[in-house]
Amino acid sequence: MLKVENISLRLGKTQIIRDISFEVGRGELVCLLGPSGCGKTTTLRLIAGLEKPDSGTISIAGEPASDRDFVLPPHKRHVGFLFQDFALFPHLTVAENIAYGLSGLDREAASRRTTELLSQIRMLDHADKYPHELSGGEQQRVAFARARAPRPPLLLLDEPFSGLDTSLRGQIREETLRILRNRGVTAIMVTHDPEEAMMMADRIILMKDGEIVQVGTPEDIYHHPVSPFAAEFLGEINRLRGTAEGNRIRTDIGPLANGEFANGTEVDVLIRPEALTLMPDSVAATEDGPFARVCDVRYAGGSSHVRLGIGDSEKPSAHVQVRCPGRVTLREGERLRVGLDPAQTFVFQAADRVDPD
Fold first, then answer.
1. Greatest CA separation found in the chain?
2. What is the mean pLDDT of residues 347-353?
3. Burial, 170: exposed, middle or buried (Cβ in 10 Å; 0-12, 13-18, 19+)?
4. Phi first, then psi: what are they for 284, rounded to 5°?
5. Backbone phi, psi, residue 222, to 5°
6. Reported pTM
């Protein structure tokens, strides 16, 4: 459906996008994920025809759309665009906003399509209202329906849920995903929220500083990150320093298998909070793993966040965060052992860094 090949874009002296390439299959939902300023929205604008690339090509449904000498105008690309601020026309009703892109249909066909979309977003009773009379969630639904009205082969969504409050965001996100899946819509969504990307995407394109860091399914990137940035951006991480010693890597939290680093190499060990398990002192004598002491416990509804000091002394050699399901009954200073799941532990060549005071 979409093919982006070696696209680059510079604005002034700043390189915004640098030689990025990816493809999106028909019916696939792909998320462009990354921190602010990484180039994900610019990539979406290039696909929409709102920016001209300095180099590279973009094709949609097998037809050329952009290169350095040619840009097919946005209205000829048959691409739907849902803007971050929704961009509804304030002087038009809900029904008129949705029907705006249906000028190619006769009045009866346009009316049927508008009614169909109003039914899908459960807003038939709001057809004659104006945007200022709607809640944020209702405005998002109308903007989503308007973008889909002419049945574009490709739908582009730029941070579509960022302006909604937390409770409403989840509901609207699920409704949007259900409609996209049920209708087999091909879509590219920009977000800086890793949880949102993992919940919605078939594949994630992770970006940093105008370049693609990693492409894969949410499970692939979460469980097999290719860099410390990828590991940390997709979820919370404990970072410890380690040293390669033969076929083992020595760390404060115990030895890990070493399959690639030369003896004496300094490494960064990244551990997911859920990779750590806690064993009370009463059973610790029969278990492996380092001792630790509880420094702090915070309850967060469905889980508890426990900060541990590693080592069997008053002065821990390192601290880690552990996420436990439900509510735990641990006391500050309590002594226990820590178990480690190697599958959720990632080892990379050590990067120079300044440790906080």
1. 79
2. 80
3. middle
4. -65, -30
5. -70, -40
6. 0.86
